[in-house]
Amino acid sequence: MVKIRFAAILCLAGLGCLIATSASGPKKLSSFDPQVNALLEKMTLDEKVGQMTQPDQTFLKSDADIAKYYLGSVLSGGDSDPKEGNSLEAWTNLIDRYQKRALETRLSIPLLYGVDAVHGHNNVLGAVVFPHNIGLGSTRNPALIEKIERITAVEVRATGINWGFAPCVTVPRDIRWGRTYEGYAEEPDGVKELGAAAVRGLQGDDLADPLRVLGCAKHYAGDGGTAYGSSTIGPHLLDQGDTRLDEKTLREIHLQGYITTIRAGVGSIMPSYSSWNGLKCSGSKRLLTEILKDELGFEGFLISDYGAIDALSGDYKHKIAMSINAGMDMVMVPERYREFIARLKEAAQDGTVPMARIDDAVRRILRVKIAMGLMDKNHSQLADRKLWKQFGSAEHRAVARDAVRQSLVLLKNEHGALPLAKSAKRIHVGGKSADDLGNQCGGWTITWQGSSGNVTPGGTTILQAIKKAVSKETKVTFAVDGKGAEGADVGVLVIGETPYAETNGDRRDLSLAPEDVAAVENMKAAGIPVVVILLSGRPMIVDKAIDKADAFVAAWLPGTEGDGVADVLFGDYKPSGKLSFSWPRSMAQVGVHRGDASYDPLFQYGYGLSY
Ligand code: GLC
Fold this sequence. Notes:
20 helices; 10% strand; globular; binds alpha-D-glucopyranose
């Protein structure tokens, strides 16, 4: 066993060197070390520990704490919004207010302000909300993902924020997991290149580009591979559970996205809440230091997940020391930051955490900040409000519309149901999600969990898009329950999931909701062709709907640009999406993958029709 592991280390060490030295894109972060070390030498212990501390802005006891504790970073986690509301102006004023405080410190080291811009700048009203990763995975189009993330970076920068906690390079292996939609694919080959493309889009080739932001590959490692029922929270299903795999399998499935995003120059990586073989990732030296930093040559910094170290063993000081000594560099505290600072200082002073480890962590953080030009006194670190005119722009929405088109997967199309005729006399639309932007966008939209309804301005529902697409003579009627379709040329039903995020999305069963099945039956009873569009964060058990449908489209969580769905429905764009998740025939097939003897899905990984 030892021999094999050693061989694996040698081979990966070679790979690691390859990655570290031959990364084409951005400059190696260690190339900034002369400037970094010069700054590090000036720093007091208080200033060093402050750089390693990230509170959520909600819990700041006063803005003055940013300077008083030399904070290196602040975040807005889900629902951590400006008190004045989620407008572009309110967000920009909030970030500038905090940044000015950081600049008051002796060394004027600016903040990294982090936010979950996971499908556009999704916290802010009026932002373009792109398809979630599960839809982008169906496009298999790295160039498109790079373009999306470049646009996202501009919209994030418009608010003065300089760090997005994306891309999520998880490989969800059990779609009962509530975070399935944050993954591009159930197989590493569907994640590797899209994750790298996302980093290139967010960070560009030069981290100092004021139109780019720092990326964050997450959640390292094996967040999508937890065993069903191993979760210790919520309904105790999958989220934050235990991934029980040998190291070879973990590497093959769950590390591939980190190898490619490191090669693309990702500046930060977020260890997962979950465990690997019973040990929390946040406290695993094997994962955080030996594999990620030593073998794979990661030169940026590790940011913990939200309060993740609280789940480690022992008292708070022990949790802190365990995680920092394992290789964590910055801690998303997020609430008791004053206590965190006091305990970490104690640990540094009594040797529980060696000063060399503190210096390495701060060096990694400063590498990124200096690479981003944050210490360049010629550049303002406040928001560039000239970018507001691009925020939610028609140009950005056009790219999102194209992403929607490319993400749709046509699973069934009989009797020529699709494409629809724009000159049809009457199209009857139904389903709870036909005219619901919130259901179109899913979780992580304006609020952490997302919500049904008209959640953000500037978007287009599928019903609105259908009305825009048809001829002036065409009548478009609508009934949520699908009734009243008699006499129409065709019925279009939009059904599926309502928004959720993280643990709240863990499910025991993935059958369609009764109201969705009823709507399909009502529409079918009218004796007309029926097209079903499913809005969901994962494949669902659709046997009660697909047999009654003449056409069936998986639209995932497309975001604000419903016109992209109409483009496919009316043939302005021929469907090209391919499943990046196997579609189970029944719940018995969930968690079964290509290569498994019992693999017998309704639709295979890679399936997708056109016309
Ligand atoms: C959340 C998520 C992580 C996110 C972080 C900050 O709990 O696990 O994806 O980036 O906290 O909001």
